[in-house]
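Researcher: Go.
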Amino acid sequence: MARNKSKIVIWAEYIPFLIFYQFVRMIPLKVAYAISSVLIKCVYYLDAKHRNRTINHMLHAGIVKDRKAAASLAKKCYHEFSMLLAEIFKMDQCYDKAKITVSGPPESVREYFAASAQFKTHILGVAHYGNWEVAGHAYCDHSGRTMASMMRPFDNPKIGKLILDHRASPLHKLIPKNLGIRQGLKALNEGRVFTVLIDQHASHTEGVETIFFGHPCRTHKTPALMHLKTGYPIIPEVTRRLPGKNFRFEVVLGNLIKYEPTDDKERDIQVVTQMCTTELEKIIREQPEQWMWAARRWLDMDGRTR
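Model: Structure:
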């Protein structure tokens, strides 16, 4: 975490990052894509730890038949991530509402757009897929609603501020993870949509066990807790990159999640969290190369225990 880094390390990381950041902002998007692709391709071959983890995760999930196919898909995954990096740096220069489309089940699409929504607001359960950074801009533009997102502080606070300056706006409020659910409930009461990334490993206190791609994992229970507390529905969502190099994306929604609580609160939390996990898995399976496979996820690999 950032508190464990000395000022020297923070600045040593930040200065070259800032130089590269400013350089990318000076060049056309397609050139930025090309440069980022070369850099991330080098990372793929030099960083054996994350390359092998990505390949092993794909094999574990059963989305490929053998290691050769996994390696091929992993290269595509890294390429998608290289595009994300370029897009983050040039977000405010390239974003265009007209290039963002929305698809999904009719009930979810109606709820996504405020004009036809049944509920005052809702909860978005989001994945590290495609370009999740553009999702906030797209949502506020399309729906006319304001948003609040729960976020984990960056390990390097100076790099974090540089990136988050593009994410935050008067319409998009950022809630540090350490402030907990209370601030999220406050945002919902204000009529904001609440967004949280729920597709990475959660601790014992933050998550419940679910099944993802046929294997056990621990998933963040925040959306379930807030849904059961408020009654506002959950919409699973990813922002899929469309073919080409034109900063075009499709907001893909899963089935609207509404659950009637029972007397068994713990079971209710697990059931709703599993519903969110299942919906995201369905979407990820369609184009798995756009999901961030390098992050730890499952309980039955990577040396994790329940």
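Model: The longest strand covers residues 123-130.
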